[in-house]
Design brief:
The protein is an alpha+beta fold. The protein is about 25% helix and about 15% strand.
């Protein structure tokens, strides 16, 4: 008997049994899970329109709690992650601004654990997708763990945490078909964007090259929110945190990123792991932006708005220390996956602001760890344990490791002389900054949060011509995947408020109605936002060296030696593995064949060739070089490689360095590699 017949024998078919559980929400009022009609779903309940979120907001807590528990066991967002251990050292005492102990003594090194991640995809998704990247750092300080939980983009999509479940539901694969994975190029995401226009600034970053970083080692990190530094005298400054990669901020190109997803879906984690194994330790300088409390309202943006950044030209970044990642994890599950970060894990001298997105995260993260890591004792897992001792009256629960001695587990008590006892501020006890808070209990947004387009326009104005072209292409690709013509047009009309030039560019590409104006009148720019102005160093760049038997041994080995001395990583590519002999009898060991690697996995290509060139070798070389060329990568050629380039049809142009003799070749080639890309190359 079929399963369907069996089911019908016992009553209705399984489909009919489930019918009573199917709900069509369209056209209905929004309610809580208890059926209470909700009057506002945009704003959490606050003490005054710029005040902190209130714990009594049952609607926010129900909505966020349900969201935090929606997926098990992987993280709902940031599921695809990779991590490493390291150390942090401050350059000079920050006593003037904060009493945080790990920011006082330049001679002390603080252990850190950093987890990088994509946001949208599941644990099995590819890594070079267009997405924000998580950049979460756990400092194991002597005063307790401090977690700086940020992204590689300094702003966010939404202004209030109550909308976070809505955002992620829109980004994730659409529920009716579970597609697409780890991508925003679909209807529900762009429908959310068009109808929640506070997202405009973040979308500009997401459509830029920042959303497809070359590696974790070459992307910035940001705390996103406004926090407070508080010094020993109780004086506070608003502060934003920045991680600046020593290698500069660099990206992939979109076609390259898509191909890497197929060639090596572990591209970013492999890069981080191999760099540490090779001793090329990733380094990031920590910078802070500081605003005096009395200057809070002296800017054309609200300092508490998480969709706004503080332009570096107006609020300079003060570099205060450096982090070095120098040890890979021993076990990805035990360390990377079980790591529990929380923006509420702070130390004396670091406090919060009333940023409503931050306020919601302070609730959400603990709630998430409870379900993901199986209960309230996730802090006892080795990767999460502080390096300083911890004592309190919390007991029992799932996965309890601590064996507490004694009969007392409450405060206050006399049986244990009222221990563990609270510590005074002088003894290192944490005290919250005493901000004055007044206001009615309201669900609303400050008027100062309602400018959604000025900084998005500033971002556009700050881009180089190549970066602007890439943004238009990104919108064209993403919206080209959207099926709804209405949503496409809504997005075009929305971003005409950012730049009419940009909106026209992708409107024409997707066949939408071209907006007529008036467009943005913002002329402000911030050069610090353009990757064109980043540090450019050749160090750790991978060079694919295409070689065949009969190559000019001594000269080529000399070039390879100079490349390595500059910190580059040449890897030999040929038709088959084994040893290659030069014309003089010298040998090179082949690292990859044309089948086991690809042009997109290298930062540059160096074509050497050899005396024994066959048709297949020439064809494979042609494919490698042409792809590198259209991805604007540096290309070098010496000896027979010069003729190979000519046969392919690539002559002298930006980023192409050739030489019959190698007198000045290596230095010129290294300079071309340091530039990262050569955007003024004409692609025919």
């Amino acid at each position: 008997m079929s399963n369907e017949k069996k089911s019908k024998v016992n009553g209705n078919s399984k489909n009919e049994q489930l019918e009573e559980y199917r709900v069509d929400d369209s056209g209905k009022h929004l309610t809580t899970n208890q059926g209470l009609k909700v009057s506002e779903d945009e704003f959490s309940l606050k003490a005054g329109e710029r005040g902190p979120t209130l714990m009594e907001d049952f609607h926010f807590r129900e909505k966020m709690t349900h969201f935090d528990h929606e997926r098990i066991p992987e993280r709902i967002v940031h599921a695809r992650g990779f991590a490493a251990h390291g150390e942090f050292e401050v350059y000079e005492s920050m006593k003037e601004y904060t009493k945080a102990g790990f920011l006082q003594d330049p001679s002390k090194k603080t252990p850190v654990f950093v987890r990088f991640s994509t946001v949208a995809g599941n644990r099995g998704s590819a890594e070079t997708v267009r997405d924000a990247r998580g950049f979460a750092t756990k400092f194991y300080t002597e005063e307790g763990n401090y977690d700086l939980v940020g992204n590689n983009i300094p702003v966010f999509f939404i202004q209030d945490a109550i909308k976070f479940p809505d955002l992620v539901h829109a980004i994730k694969p659409e529920p009716h078909n579970e597609m697409p994975q780890a991508a925003t190029a679909h209807d529900t995401f762009w429908d959310f964007i068009a109808n929640n226009q506070e997202s405009a600034h973040m979308v500009m970053w997401a459509m830029s090259d920042r959303a497809i970083p070359r590696s974790f080692r070459m992307m910035e990190g940001f705390g996103v929110h406004t926090f407070r530094f508080v010094n020993e005298e109780g004086k506070a400054h608003f502060v934003k945190f920045h991680w600046k990669p020593v290698l500069g901020t660099h990206s992939l190109v979109w076609d390259e990123a898509q191909k890497i997803n197929g060639k090596d879906p572990d591209f970013h984690r492999r890069d981080l792991h191999e760099s540490i194994e090779n001793g090329d330790y990733p380094e990031y300088e920590l910078g802070v932006q500081l605003i005096k409390e009395e200057d809070e309202f002296n800017f054309d943006f609200d300092v508490l708005d998480p969709t706004k950044l503080w332009p570096e030209e107006e609020v300079p970044v003060k570099i205060i220390g450096k982090m070095t990642l120098n040890r890979n994890v021993d076990n990805v599950f035990a360390e990377t996956e079980q790591a529990a970060f929380h923006p509420g894990s702070v130390v004396p001298g670091i406090d919060f602001s009333n940023d409503p997105l931050l306020q919601g995260r302070l609730f959400s993260y603990t709630d998430t760890q409870l379900i993901r890591l199986g209960g309230p004792n996730f802090h006892e897992l080795p990767i999460n344990r502080p390096v300083c001792p911890f004592h309190n009256n919390q007991r029992d629960g799932y996965s309890r490791h601590t064996i507490n001695k004694g009969q007392v587990s409450y405060h206050k008590n006399s049986l244990a002389q009222n221990t563990p006892a609270p510590a005074s501020e002088e003894e290192g006890g944490y005290t919250h900054y005493q901000e004055k808070v007044e206001g009615r209990k309201v669900r609303t947004r400050s008027e100062s949060f309602k400018d959604h387009f000025s900084q998005a326009a500033m971002f556009w104005n700050s881009m180089s011509e190549a970066e602007k072209e890439h943004i238009i292409d990104a919108f064209s690709f993403e919206l080209g995947k959207v099926m709804s013509k209405s949503v496409q047009q809504q997005v075009v009309d929305m971003f005409a408020n950012v730049s009419l030039e940009m909106a026209k560019g992708f409107a024409e590409a997707i066949g939408a109605k071209v907006p007529e104006g008036p467009g943005s009148t913002v002329t402000k720019s911030s050069p610090a936002l353009s990757q064109e102005n980043t540090v450019k160093r050749p160090h750790t760049r991978k060079v694919g060296v295409i070689v065949k038997s009969g190559f000019s041994g001594r000269e080529v080995k000399s070039v390879l030696k100079e490349l390595k001395e500059e910190g580059l990583q040449p890897e030999i590519i040929s038709s088959k593995l084994g040893m290659l002999k030069s014309g003089e009898g010298e040998e090179l060991e082949v690292d990859h064949t044309f089948l086991t690697c690809d042009s997109v996995l290298f930062d540059s290509i160096y074509v050497v060739g050899g005396k024994e060139l066959d048709k297949k070798f020439k064809q494979d070389t042609s494919y490698f070089v042409k792809e590198a060329f259209v991805h604007f990568k540096p290309i070098g050629a010496t000896h027979e490689g010069v003729s190979l380039l000519k046969d392919i049809g690539i002559g002298q142009c930006a980023g192409v360095v050739t030489a019959e003799k190698i007198d000045t070749f290596t230095s010129d080639f290294i300079e071309a590699i340091a530039a990262h890309r050569h955007w003024n190359r004409e692609i025919v």
